[in-house]
Design goal:
Layout: H1 2-18, H2 22-29, H3 33-41, H4 48-57, H5 62-66
């Protein structure tokens, strides 16, 4: 549960740091923005493919997304 909270917070913080909207990030992942919104709210977790895409989008390691 704690890992999910950290992931959702990190995704939100990184998105804001880069100045991206939830809609923009969702488009980069090929999903609807509500699905991405659920990642940031901690209601669902990204698939492995989306996790990798998010790390690349934000130019961070996988570990950085979970720290």
């Amino acid at each position: 549960m704690e890992e999910l909270y950290r992931l959702s917070k990190n995704l939100r913080d990184l998105r804001k740091q880069y100045g991206y909207t939830q809609k923009y990030v969702a488009e980069q992942l090929g999903i609807v923005y509500q699905s991405y919104q659920h990642y940031e709210l901690g209601l669902s977790t990204p698939s492995l493919q989306h996790f990798i895409m998010l790390a690349k989008l934000y130019d961070v390691s996988y570990e950085d997304l979970l720290e």
